[in-house]
């Protein structure tokens, strides 16, 4: 079979992350048609990028994963650069002498490199071995594995999956400049594509999305109290601090906030908070099916597979309307509500809590229909294979 590579910053069964899950799903969907190899780092922790896994090739569900050592961990130097970037680069930064401060390309490269994971061996491998692959797919714009690795592969052989959202780092000019030549792009949503046009100035490519693999209806978890559910990394950057503040204001309504995933924020001890840690897939879907609503408070999303999984379980969803992608999911599907700010979040929680059974059933059915119509595995696989074959054919010609 024709050999292709997929590059992603982390790849391991223990890793929880949207772009990592996307890259692995694409590897599996393509493995029936192509000889797929995943190229990644030895890191598991996305904060430190410690060198934890063995380097070299290991099989994961029959697919070879080639891991390269991380050169260093993220440290104070990068955090200092990040603080400067937040003050000096993003479009809302205060101007200096009447104009925003511009970073030179070398400093932008430094920022990306020390953000991690820095894997010079991966870059060397791509430079020396890209002729061995008919195409190389790079997943997510943000990390050195893509930013430096993609420069080692001829642009006509690359497929670029940005997983872009409107965040301060995306405004570093180096990202737009680096990826401009790599026009074979896969967008997860039309909203992400519009975000690229606004921030980077180009939007060529096709919207393919990600498959919702587990759309079978689960048995709802039965609980004495109604509950809102959040699944994912629990941290302020995901809006979980705002979610907790909103729940404080509705604590007298008998609702529980149930959270699964890793707690990087330090949840307060409250009788209306229940933290379950990691749960298996079956329990996650049962929790979704039994929830009053699934809540995604993150402002920075390019797709959110977990929200679509909740929709497939016929549960109303509540999302942060400041995220164009999530607002578009709601407006296209009718599967729930979006909010703008803390007060509106509190109001929408109250609205969801008082839905009658008919309204709840109608909203839940709309969400499930949206998922099945747009994100079935066979639909995404067919479009993905077509895209890869097109790139391979053009490169061969």
From TrEMBL:
It comes from the Bacteria. The keyword Transferase applies. SUPFAM superfamilies: UDP-Glycosyltransferase/glycogen phosphorylase. GO terms for molecular function: glycosyltransferase activity. Keywords: Transferase. GO terms for biological process: lipopolysaccharide biosynthetic process. Signal peptide: none annotated. This is Glycosyltransferase involved in cell wall biosynthesis.
